[in-house]
Amino acid sequence: MKHLLLFWLMLLALAQPGAGQTGSVRGVVRAAGQAVPFASVGLKGTTHGTTADEHGGFALHKVPLGSYQLAVTALGYQPAERAVEVRAQATLPYTVLLVPASTETAEVVISGTLGEVIKSESPVPVELYTPKFFQKNPAPCLFENLTMVNGVRPQLNCSVCNTGDIHINGLEGPYTMVLIDGMPIVSSLSTVYGLSGIPNSMVERVEVVKGPASTLYGSEAVGGLINVITKAPQKAPPLALDVFGTSFGELNVDAGTAGRMGKATSLLTANVFGYDRRRDVNHDGFTDVPTQKRVSVFNKWSLTRPEDRVANLAARYYYEDRFGGQLGWRPEHRAGDSIYGESIYTSRYELLGQYQLPIAREKLLLSGSYNRHHQNSAYGTTSYLATQHVGFGQLTWLKPLSVQHQLLLGAAYRYTWYDDNTPATAAPASDRPQNRPDVVRLPGLFAQDEWHLNLRSTLLTGLRLDHDPRHGLVPSGRFNYKWGTADNRQVLRVGAGNGFRVVNLFTEDHAALTGARQVVVAERLSPERSWNATVNYTQQLGSDARPLILDGSLFWTYFTNKILPDYDADPNQIIYRNLRGYAVSRGLTLNADWTLTPDLKLLAGVTLLDVYRREPGNAAHLRQVQTPGFSGTFAASYAATRWGLTVDYTGQVTGPMNLPVQPLDYRPSRSPWYSLQNVQLTKQLGKRLQVYGGVKNLLGFLPRHVLLRPFDPFDKHVNQDNPNGYTFDTEYNYAPLQGRRSFLGMRYAL
């Protein structure tokens, strides 16, 4: 503790402000003779940045005198830089010219360092995806959109209610942190259903970091993070509408409006999704896809303040009614044992905001969020009622020590309150029938030091210390180094660090509730620890007008104390314990982004995975279930500009994976190779209206042998004509149970 205190005192001593004269930088951002509104403008190597106004104008004040590189980025344009001089006397306004970009990915990232930085300059490899990218294969929510991202795999865990989680580089959902505007809104209880409630109407871009990010974000960011950046009200169109439906009867509506009220701007979006048909293509008596009624309303306010200081507040409400089960189920059968059904009512309230404290020359940012998640579920005869409150607060201080050197200090506090109707929160016998909710208070401190060693090299180091009442002090650290050519056509990034995950067993384990298994915690669980190393290399070939961008990464993650569920010891139990040995996730990802002509663009990605564990006394590598060794994604887009037409052909290829089977199970223990492919045609009608349509799952692939004993879901006759002792099972799954279907939609933006 003494060394930690000394460490903080040294950092604070380094961060004392210095004296000196300051000046201003003014200018305008233009492209093709027109102003570019709302471009991001900043001085490289400093914290001075702003957003251009609706006429492309910008101003940076109180900048120390000297020479700088002015960096400008805007969606739809290539990033640009130019040299500027800050003098004591006023200088003429600068003009920055932008060139239209050929890529659908954004260029400004924040997730790797908690500060805005141009993607090519970030020492942490961050992947970015905009709504334009996801529109190549439209989907009603983030969970389905992420199937297009190489190395990120949404995994369905229940064949009846279609709940799932997101795997990054082969690591299961609990190792992936999902953030909204940098705050842990989707976590713990909400991980199963919260992902389906994030509509496209509120998303400006999605940032993906693969590998441990615990130094900045704490527990749950062991495998990586997905940060959903919501739309800025001042950049949103006054009116936007996106509606599409499918031949299965699915209907999705996204609507948004934005406006200014004095110094404040507001964005209001709403999403409605509905599907009420009970389809049974495989004739097992169960719905292939659950029926859903879902609504999400999002409102964000942003206040314009002096020197462009951040001040915004957002709120969201989400409700869903989901059902999957036997075709004859009705609401009166809920929680009964005559007809099997899984009925889930979910309601969520979320509040999040950021406020930059008005302290001269300092960038102190206060962030906070709160969410309440309530769930009323019935899985056959098992009722599950749960409520969770999560409060989060964080204060960060970004302090430039020089033009090339900046320090980030932060303090965070997370409060989680959880209660349900299971033994997980039951009080001792003397206190019953009262429950004893599970309460976790998790404070943390972190520091990040970023050095621009020279024009080509950047070094980033970080340290975090969290305190969990069950485990005491939990440290984590990181190291990242970036080297690039002057034009960043070649970039090498090397990173290493460790992460942690505190115990947070999600008691609504679907394998337990839907398969009638009992959850058994065999011991006092210790926090998981991981060590990770990553090497990333990016190379641009060809001209800026027709680039071929290659991006490859090697990664290796080593786990100790990994918390694993044992499904094999007893078919009626799931036993949780810490792994006595170790676990490894390693692999390779390759991405290619090729603009062959101004009208033809190709995207492709491949991921090779080796995820296994070793236990004492067993020399064999035990492969992780539902984790394919090979997966790939692709997208080809052709724009016939003359006719206002665009054709998108997208898809994914998935290799064999181990599947959770019962003893003597007749179902294959490994899945087959399969591919899900989609085609879409988009027609531009004027400047504001688009009409699009196409076919999903073009090859009509459907998984086989999904449910075990669907004719006896309550296991009433498990001892009759059942020599192998099979029980009803829903966790055997490797692909969506949705066949070929067409879709048609329209988009309008004012």
Automatic annotation (TrEMBL):
Q: Which Gene3D superfamilies match?
A: Carboxypeptidase-like, regulatory domain, TonB-dependent receptor, beta-barrel domain, TonB-dependent receptor, plug domain
Q: Which UniProt keywords apply?
A: Cell outer membrane, Membrane, Receptor, Signal, TonB box, Transmembrane, Transmembrane beta strand, Transport
Its signal peptide is 1-15
What main location does UniProt list? Answer: membrane
The TonB-dependent receptor plug domain, residue ranges? 119-224
> Looking at the UniProt record for this protein, which Gene Ontology cellular component terms does it annotate, in alphabetical order?
cell outer membrane
Against Pfam families, the record matches this protein to: CarbopepD_reg_2 (PF13715), Plug (PF07715), TonB_dep_Rec_b-barrel (PF00593)
Give the molecular function GO annotations.
carbohydrate binding; siderophore uptake transmembrane transporter activity
Q: Which GO terms describe its biological process?
A: siderophore transmembrane transport
SUPFAM superfamilies given for it? Porins, Starch-binding domain-like
The record's listing under InterPro entries reads: Beta-barrel_TonB (IPR000531), Beta-barrel_TonB_sf (IPR036942), Carb-bd-like_fold (IPR013784), Plug_dom (IPR012910), Plug_dom_sf (IPR037066), TonB-dep_rcpt-like (IPR039426)
Q: Does the keyword Transmembrane apply?
A: yes
Q: What domain of life does the UniProt record list for this protein's source? A: Bacteria
- UniProt subcellular location: Cell outer membrane
* Lipid bilayer topology: Multi-pass membrane protein
- Any idea where the TonB-dependent receptor-like beta-barrel domain is? 273-698
Q: Which PANTHER family match?
A: TONB-DEPENDENT OUTER MEMBRANE RECEPTOR, TONB-DEPENDENT RECEPTOR
Entry similarity comment: Belongs to the TonB-dependent receptor family.
Q: Give the protein's recorded name.
A: TonB-dependent receptor
Organism (species)? Hymenobacter jeollabukensis
